[in-house]
UniProtKB/TrEMBL annotation:
It comes from Roseateles oligotrophus. It comes from the Bacteria. Keywords: Hydrolase, Metal-binding, Zinc. This is M14 family metallopeptidase. Pfam families: AstE_AspA_cat. InterPro entries: AstE_AspA_cat, N-alpha-Ac-DABA_deacetylase. PANTHER family: BLL3975 PROTEIN (PTHR37326:SF1). SUPFAM superfamilies: Zn-dependent exopeptidases. The keyword Metal-binding applies. Coiled coil: none annotated. Residues 29-258 form the Succinylglutamate desuccinylase/Aspartoacylase catalytic domain. Its cofactor is Zn(2+).
Length: 371
């Protein structure tokens, strides 16, 4: 294993943060990139990364890593250091207010312009050329703030990978995934290995989150060069939601790490016998069918249903109780679907999204991700 340190742009004299990446195997073949806790207060991914590190160390010692695997065990040193009144603030940068998992720069056109004279009828050759030009465009991009330098560093490490796994979690939730619709044929095996209850699909969900920044270049290039050069969907990029924020347990993390290792073996990055793919624990549904459950009034929040339950339209999922009047407001499911995630906060403000139900039909438009 090779450990690399990547200095971020210093935000003030005497201050310097760095990103650490762990490199396994060898370059030139298939590549997987895995990062943990881009939202720095979502900690299950860091524990999974710890177990991945132990397993990858053993696999490399045994000579079983066939491709290149990069592990970033803590992807956000900025967010990890942010505290306000004893509370960790890891989702948004406190200086700009920006979500750490949004607004990744789009180098699709720059790479296409640099690559087009080198493209031909061989799709494998085209992938190689486009990856090279994309990486050069990312590395040459301007990063004039610490946050932008973090985004550039993460993209430079990941943009030429075949597989990108971004490890997150929800508040209280079952295992679920987010990926772009063109990635689903290759994502289905990952969903099975991880036991995901639902995979939420969209093609450009809005605000350019990290996983889509890695995968969307390929379907955009395929559309741009359609009829001229064959361009496959050469990157499977997935946001892996490792259940809830409090699910930081060795048993869960070790099993999740092993499931990721098994998937990498299935994809040929690790040699040796590959365990049989488990049966599907869930299915794929449109992100536009994921319905937010909002509190219309403020009050004490108590749930009547558990994350992971199937619900029907009209089912009462929670009560919001006004502590002064005693009024009880019912929060009902707007669709038939999987009640897959809920908040851990137990006082709801008016308009607050407190839960999510994944339906089967696309009902929403516009930006589909939460803040």
């Amino acid at each position: 294993m090779q450990l690399q340190k990547h200095a971020l742009l210093s935000p003030a004299p005497g201050t310097q943060r760095e990103l650490i990446s762990l490199h396994y195997g060898k370059t030139g073949g298939s590549k997987a990139y895995i990062q943990a806790s881009l939202h720095a207060d979502e900690l299950p991914g860091m524990l999974v990364a710890h177990h991945l590190r132990l397993k990858l160390n053993a696999l490399q010692a045994a000579g079983r890593i066939s491709g290149e695997i990069i592990l970033v065990p803590m992807a956000n040193p900025i967010g990890l250091s942010q505290y306000l009144l004893h509370m960790h603030q890891g989702r948004f940068e406190t200086g700009s207010g920006e979500n750490f998992n949004r607004h990744y720069p789009d180098q699709t056109e720059a790479a296409a312009l640099a690559a087009q004279a080198q493209l031909g009828t061989d799709s494998a050759h085209n992938v190689q050329v486009l990856r090279r030009e994309l990486k050069q465009a990312v590395e040459a991009s301007v990063a004039d703030t610490e946050l932008k330098s973090l985004r550039r560093t993460l993209m430079a490490l990941s943009c030429d990978a075949d597989i990108v796994l971004d490890l997150h979690c929800d508040a209280q939730a079952v295992m679920h995934l987010y990926t772009e619709t063109p990635c689903w044929p290759e994502c289905e095996a990952l969903a099975n290995y991880l036991g995901a209850r639902v995979t939420l699909l969209a093609q450009d969900s809005g605000d350019n989150p990290f996983d889509e920044a890695c995968s969307q270049v390929w379907w955009k290039w395929a559309k741009r060069f359609e009829g001229r050069f064959p361009i496959p969907q050469a990157c499977l990029a997935v946001t892996v939601e490792l259940r809830g924020a409090a699910d930081v347990e060795h048993g869960l993390a070790e099993a999740d790490a092993q499931n990721i290792i098994d998937f990498l073996g299935y994809r040929g990055l690790i040699s040796g016998e590959v365990p049989a793919m488990p049966a599907a624990a869930g299915d794929a549904r449109p992100l536009a069918g994921c319905m937010p459950i909002k509190a219309a009034s403020a009050g004490v929040l108590t749930f009547l249903r558990q994350a992971g339950e199937a619900v029907a339209v009209g089912d009462v999922l929670a009560h919001v109780i006004c502590p002064l009047s005693g009024a009880v407001a019912e929060l009902k499911s707007p669709v038939d679907g999987l009640f897959f995630a809920r908040d851990f906060v137990r006082f709801a403000s008016a308009g607050m999204t407190v839960a999510k139900v994944a339906g089967r039909e696309a009902l929403r438009t516009g930006k589909l991700l939460s803040a």
